[in-house]
UniProtKB/TrEMBL annotation:
Catalytic activity as recorded in UniProt: tRNA(Phe) + L-phenylalanine + ATP = L-phenylalanyl-tRNA(Phe) + AMP + diphosphate + H(+)
Keyword Nucleotide-binding belongs to the record: yes
Origin species: Nelumbo nucifera (Sacred lotus)
Protein name as it appears in the record: phenylalanine--tRNA ligase
Annotated GO biological process: translation; tRNA aminoacylation
Length: 352
């Protein structure tokens, strides 16, 4: 998913976690004048566009009150506009492009792995700092932890900024092949390809020694080979017979790490990030004799290409001229533009 660390075009990486775009670490709760005044400016702005906000919502059986998430407290930087997106769960709507894409990916995994992957799509997006960062080895001084980049509910709690936040817990609970889909939150400027709320899918697969020992290759090469085969199959399932390439990259949670790119509509398009899970993550989850792979992909980025949706803000539109264009199971129906500027709510253009 195209999410930036800075506003500069040269340095707008697809992932918050890639090394080449680190910038100086900012202390999350710095009480400097600059930080607190930026926060109050945000609050003022969000009040201006405030829509009626539901005050209690339920996600995966957990009741969440507005006052649990939006608080007038220096450790909290969640505006009402962002709270209003919690519980919308576009990825659970079978007739929404994000839900249609999720289901198409589910179909691929069900078919390829005989329904062996466990699927999670209603895990609560409010997670601990430990789950979001520490458990997946994000360094203590990494920019993604900063108050500027992440929505903090309090000093120990955030709105997840990636679905990788659930990896360690699910491994600890004994899951060895799983997909996690959910809404993720990052503080960012808004434009046609960036929005502070978007959707990701995470996949993890763990192997036992007998699996790689039989193959005669070492554990890491075995997992990397299986990962590439799986994801090339997924890309063909979604995009047809496209040209693909693998690019080496860096993520704190995997080593080696890769990105998959496909040549689509005369451009190289980054599809996802992935790699062989760091042993430390497996070890902490009680898996000392295993190897695993993991991937993460941004659903909006792919849905925009597949459905030809030109602006990421349209995914939030309730205008019937948008919603009525998509039907369950219909991946890649081409979106027919209408006058979007007039019909999107003002807060979609300015939030947070
Ligand atoms: N969490 C990464 C992000 O938000 C995406 C990702 C990359 C997930 C590599 C993974 C992975 O599991 O192995 O940009």
């Amino acid at each position: 998913m195209a999410i930036s660390l800075t506003h500069s075009i040269v340095c707008r990486p697809s992932s918050l976690f890639q090394r080449y775009c680190f910038r100086n670490f900012t202390v999350p709760f710095s009480s400097t004048y600059a930080t607190s005044s930026a926060l109050s400016a945000n609050k003022v702005r969000s009040h201006k566009w405030r829509q009626p906000v539901v005050s209690v919502l339920e996600i995966g059986g957990v009741k969440i009150g507005r006052d649990d998430v939006v608080r007038d407290d220096p450790t909290n930087n969640v505006p009402d506009t962002v709270f209003s997106k919690l519980g919308m769960q576009l990825h659970r709507r079978d007739q929404h492009p994000i839900g249609i894409l999720k289901n198409a990916i589910y179909d691929y995994f069900d078919k390829t792995y005989a329904e062996k992957f466990d699927k999670f799509d209603d895990l609560c997006p409010i997670v601990s700092v430990k789950e979001n960062f520490d458990d997946v080895l994000v360094p203590a001084d990494h920019v993604s932890r900063s108050y500027n980049d992440t929505y903090y509910v309090d000093a120990q709690t955030v709105l997840r900024c990636h679905t990788s936040a659930h990896q360690a817990e699910l491994l600890r609970r004994g899951h060895t092949q799983f997909l996690v889909t959910g809404d993720v939150y990052r503080r960012d400027s808004i434009d046609s390809t960036h929005y502070p709320v978007f959707h990701q899918m995470e996949g993890v697969r763990v192997f036992n020694p007998n699996e790689w020992e039989e193959s005669g290759v070492d554990a890491t090469s075995y997992a990397a080979g299986d990962l590439k085969k799986c994801l090339e199959g997924l890309a063909r399932h979604l995009f047809g017979a496209v040209e693909m390439r693998w690019v080496d990259t860096y993520f704190p949670f995997t080593n080696p790490s890769f990105e998959l790119e496909i040549y689509f509509q005369e451009k190289w398009l980054e599809v996802l990030g992935c790699g062989v899970t760091e042993q430390e993550i497996l070890k902490r989850s009680g898996k000392t004799n295993n190897v695993a792979w993991a991937f993460g992909l941004g659903l909006e980025r792919l849905a925009m290409v597949l459905f030809e949706i030109p602006d990421i803000r349209l995914f939030w539109s309730t205008d019937e001229r948008f919603t009525s264009q998509f039907s369950e199971g219909q991946l890649g129906v081409k979106f027919k533009p209408f006058s979007k500027v007039k019909h999107l709510s003002p807060c979609l253009w300015t939030m947070p």
